[in-house]
Amino acid sequence: MTLNATLFAQLIVFFILAWFTMKFVWPPMMKAIDERAKKIADGLAAAERGKQALAEANRTVEQELAKTRSEAQQRLADVEKRAHQIIEEAKQQAEAERKRILAQAEAEAAQEAQRAREALRDQLATLVVQGAEQILKKEINAQAHADLLNQLKAEL
């Protein structure tokens, strides 16, 4: 075989191989490449959507955090206000209790003073009677003068 025949045979085998590749191998490879390119494009689009969703979620989280902080500050202010109210109520109750105790003590002191006056009147009446008895050097009937002593107590 000559060089031309070998070259011609190689050329025919090459064209048959090229035709076979174009007919049976190339379409599935192109289909696989197209599917892969589509998957990559879908993945990139999904990644972009995920990135946007993440950014939106971050914005939502920041809004919720700001809202929560605001609510926490409001609650803290409410708690402080309530604490001041409780303190004021406690002061008012303490003042009322102080006044009540003071009034009770004054009433008890007045009663005690009244009892002391009564006791002093009794002692004074007894001393007056004893003094009068000594002055008169005679016995004074205590029963007869009981009315006189009661009258003296009332006047004192």
Written overview of the protein:
The chain has 156 residues and is mainly α. The protein is 92% helix and 0% strand. It is rod-shaped and about 190 Å long. 0% of the residues are buried.
Which SSEs are present, and which pair or pack?
Layout (H helix, E strand, L loop, with lengths): L2 H134 L9 H10 L1
Number of helices, counting only DSSP H or I runs of 4 residues or more:
2
Helix content: over 70%
- The fraction of residues assigned to DSSP E strands is under 5%
What is the overall shape?
rod-shaped
Quick synopsis:
The chain has 156 residues and is an all-alpha fold.
Label this structure with key terms.
156 residues, mainly alpha
